[in-house]
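From the shared-data thread, chain only:
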Amino acid sequence: MKKHLVEIFTGNCPLCDQTVQLVQKMATSRDQVKVYNLGQGQEGSQYLEQAERYGVKAVPAIAVDGVVVFTGKPSYKQLQGAGFGQPTISLPSSEYLYAGMGI
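Structure, as C-alpha cells:
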C-alpha cells in the first residue's frame, strides 16, 4: 500500500501545536508526518520555500501528498472525514478544504 506524506506547516501557536498532536495521534503506519515550523528562525526560512510552493497563506496548514487539504485547525471529525486514521487518505471535498478559513 502507498505511504502518504502528511506535511504540517506551523508557526509557534497553540492551534498549530494542537493540530500537530491531533494529526500525529490519528496517523497510521502508512502516513509519514513531517512538521515544518515556519517560525523557527533559520530553519523556518527553509520551510518557507515549501510553504510558498504549496500556496500556504495561513497556519496551521496540512498538505497530503503535495496538496494542501486544510488551512486552520481541523477537528477530529473533519480529519476523519478526509480519510485520516483510515486505510487510505482521499482528497477532501471543498467542505474540508476550506475548514477554518471562514469560507
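Helices lie at 14-26, 41-54, 76-81, 94-97.
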